[in-house]
Amino acid sequence: MPASPSTARAINDRLALRLLQQEGPLTAGQLKQLTGLSRPTVADLVDRLTAAGLITVVGESGEQRRGPNARLYGIVADRAHLAALDVRTEGVLVLVSDLVGRVLAEASVPIDADSGTGPAVEQAVAAVESAVKEAGVPAAPERAGVREWGRLHTVGIGAPGLIDPATGDLRDSAGLPAWHRSLVATLHERLPGARVTVENETNLAALAEQREGAARDRDTFVLLWLGHGVGAAVVLDGTLRRGASGGTGEIGFLPVPGTDTLPSATDCAGGYHSLTGAAAIVSLATAHGLPTPPTTDGPGAAEAVRGAVTAVLARTGSGTARSGAGRASAGETGSCDGPVTTEAAAGAGPASLGEPGSAAGSVPAAPAGSGAGPASADQPGAGAGPEYAVVAGDVAEAVAGLAGELPAARFLGALADRIAVGAASVVAVLDPGCVVLGGEVGQAGGTVLAGLVEERLRRMSPLVTEVRASSLGGTAVLRGALLTARDRAQDELFAPPERLGG
């Protein structure tokens, strides 16, 4: 049955708005070409969207052209303002943007572990308030008894822990600060007109890598988050999978060889987290004689990995490492966020998992041209920081050659062994074809670490799997939260037929 005129108009309007979002300002002629609609139909939708306050003239196309046909139309960016939060174990990062995603203000606040729930929530809310005011978001109307400080349309929040798939609420998880759930409730109270969405942080990181990062050309992949904690996100056929209880990707609880105990329902110690969490990585680096970073969180682990990669490349002459853009902020992210003490991490794995002096510290050479990872930093999936103009298979061979004399090479080999243990389990079950090493550690390891892990997966599994380094690193959660908020706001503003000329 053909669509009614009002439904057809709504579909055409939404198509035009999506093109303006993706391509930027366009002329009516360009909209006609891209949509395939007739000139009168495009003229009508432009008039409708302009009258609705969704698009406006933002300039002209070309210096030689003048008049109506040269007008460039763009989305009215300040029609709605959005906020994105990355809620970490020890702090919050905030950004505020307009409807097209242009960042207007940012703020961050560390929150001490000893802070009570009330003070912690107020510190986090103050960071949001500061960013909203800096962005110049119009004030919300006053309401008796409620302190409101800005008219936000949508707020996207990334947080560790499980999200209830039925309610969308952050579940009470052992090992996570109580103020996380209270913060969400407080934002609902302080911003009664805003749509507040909460999503697991690793899932948001995967969405960001899919839209803007290392997995742009992949409909099916797994993001393995390596930061303060370890987690995974699963994208199959372009869709993020959450599972029956919202727990898909809680890989920190995965039982693995090389630990002294098994994880429990309330504690991931003894699981994959004990091998690849930040504290475990820092301890592994120290055990191999590398300098001990000042912290055992995500940035500290990333510093150890980045230093090792730089040392290896300096010895091989294979390329130059450039410092990554991973941020050192208050706390790090990861689905299994319970801390692992340095002492516990030091004894987390036996020699078979790559401890000093073990055979696992040596990396068998990958065949030349085997394609173990992206060929260069310019290809999709190459680590944005550090970036390496090297072939990952060649680096794996070079690391193997240095394992007997360079502690940094032995450390990277041992770390790749540990990462591959969990990655191989995921590959065996899901066969994703691509694993992205995310978080600060994945980005710091770049193509070198990705190539080492891929070489091990090739030996452990018959399923061909490409391993890529994150190009967003620690910023992925915040970017994912912003993308989610923007999508929700645009869906609401762009879709209703009654508001689009229905």
What's the helix count?
Answer: 14
What is the global morphology?
A: globular
Quaternary assembly:
single chain
What is the average of the pLDDT values? 80
- How far from one another are the termini? 18 Å
For the biggest sheet, the summary is: 5 strands, mixed
Rg over C-alpha atoms, rounded to the nearest angstrom: 24 Å
Going by helix content, strand content and strand pairing, the class is alpha/beta
Percentage of residues in DSSP E strands:
5-15%
Q: Which H/E pattern describes the elements?
A: HHHEEEEEHEHEHEEEHHHHHHEHEH
What share of the residues lie within helices?
25-40%
Summarize the structure in words.
By secondary structure, the chain is an alpha/beta fold. The protein contains 14 helices and twelve strands. The protein has helices at residues 5-23, 28-35, 39-51, 117-135, 179-190, 201-212, 273-276, 278-287, 298-316, 342-346, 392-402, 407-430, 439-460, 476-494; strands at residues 55-60, 71-75, 81-88, 91-98, 103-110, 154-159, 195-200, 221-226, 230-236, 239-241, 434-438, 466-469. It has a five-stranded mixed sheet with strand order 5-4-3-6-7, with helices on both faces. Strands 10-9-8-11-12 form a five-stranded mixed sheet, sandwiched between helices. α6 crosses α14 (476-494), α8 (278-287) crosses α9 (298-316) and α12 packs across α13 (439-460). It is globular and about 70 Å long.
Q: Which features does this protein show?
A:
502 residues; alpha/beta; five-stranded mixed beta sheet; 14 helices
